[in-house]
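Q: Start with the shorter request: fold the first protein.
A: Done. Sequence, then structure:
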Amino acid sequence: MWTWILLTIGLFLGFISILVISIYQKKKSLALFSLIPLGLSFITGSISLYHILTKTYHKVAGKVEKAIEPRPGVTIYTDLFGNSNQSCLKVINSKDRVVPVVDCCIWLEFTTCPEEAARIIAQHPYQSTKLNKEGLRFAEPAVEEKPSWFAPVSLGDSALAFKFTNPKGKTEELLFLSPDSTRGYYCNLRF
């Protein structure tokens, strides 16, 4: 690639030099001769541009591909709640926002322990309620993108529901925990 760029620059400088000499010596034939390095510099410039654009495309395409690659469930959990030092945590299902501006939600289903659940709850001033199965049906987010595995109703009666609205990030966090705090569902809604 650098060879083509240097050749283009050299040919263009050759064109300029021959053109200046032809004007200084007032020779039209030399001015016409200067068009040869100009034409060759256009050809080598086109080749250089092709190489630069190809290299840039591959570099950018790799970054875009990596950016839209879905994150694993544990990574989503860590990004949301920080590192867990509990070995009881296991992310069962997850669905991430692929395009943050377009996709509405982050969804998680996980098993945990009471200590880890308490750590999560302590991160925000959640509003909490204890709900039966019917109450859970109404507390679930009513959006089309909800995955089929997102079923807080399966937590049973007396499940704990937590809600936090973040006015800065324009998000609403919904956390559902089983009565013994060993199973949970989480949804981060963007509005």
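Q: Next, the second protein, separately.
A: Sequence, then structure:
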Amino acid sequence: MNKLVYNIRAKTVSPVSITLPDQDGFPMMTIGRNADGTLVKTAYIPATSFRGKLRHALVLFQMAADAAKGLVWDLFRIYECLLGQDSQSESKDDLRVDIAATKKRRESNHIIDVWGCGLGVSARLKTGHLMPVGGVVVEPESFSSVRKDLDADASIFESMSKEDVEAFEKRNHLNAQRAELGKKIDAIEASLRAAKKEKDAKTVDALTAQKDDLKKQVDACAEQMGPMKNSTKSLFTISAMPAGTELAGCTTLIRPTAKDFEMMLKTFDLFSRDPIIGGNSTRGFGEIAGVIQISDDDGADYGAIEFGGHHPAKVTLTDIGKAFAAGK
């Protein structure tokens, strides 16, 4: 046996909201082509989002446990364990791996050994995307919401001082003015992109000047608003994978040990207690639940983990799983 296989079947209990830096809206993946050659795309939960949630749950638990014993992690350890970042390995010119040093580092830090860190310590835990079951194409849904301001309830002003009411009204006026300027900037940026694409230097220069002038006006509004410059009243839209979406994915652990096995059971238990992926959890997004079947690469059954519901995971191990957990 060279690896453990965690086959995941899950369902979104609520809509799931995730954003990636290189995509607008919910992450989409190409899974094929139509007869006319157009791409077929589906929503999916990226492996980075799922893996990041698992890693954070485990590391934060371990940090809290150590802190309770009076052991406080330094900043370097937090970065390497929580984010897998090692600036020293990522910035050095010589990318050759020091095998002896890597072995020593793995032995001294179990989290790094399993989850990897920087360019020097490769992960033994490999995480797959969570994809819609059966190749089903899932389209994201849009959810709109309004962030309200004080004037949503006029009775509030009855308990405020005259000076604060006047300050609110001034702020409200400046905020509306700033919002209108923002719309103009958005329109100019769209035209600016088109001009740059057409390589129209004269138009680019003119639009850039207009944009800079509008930004100065926005800054002036914000300056007059003082410490209350953050906008509270706004309409926003959230793009999310629909609730009830069935998902499947696979996570594997190379060269597993009984200690690794225990770590992964703990990790999935922590996730089960807070089964939220992505953002906007305070608005009811991100919850999933499901079952993880554990086997090895020879097909032997090690058991299953039921997760979700904000409760401890329900772990059922077979005799093979129990023997492995015991180090036999």
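Q: Describe the second briefly.
A: The mean pLDDT is 88. The radius of gyration is 26 Å.
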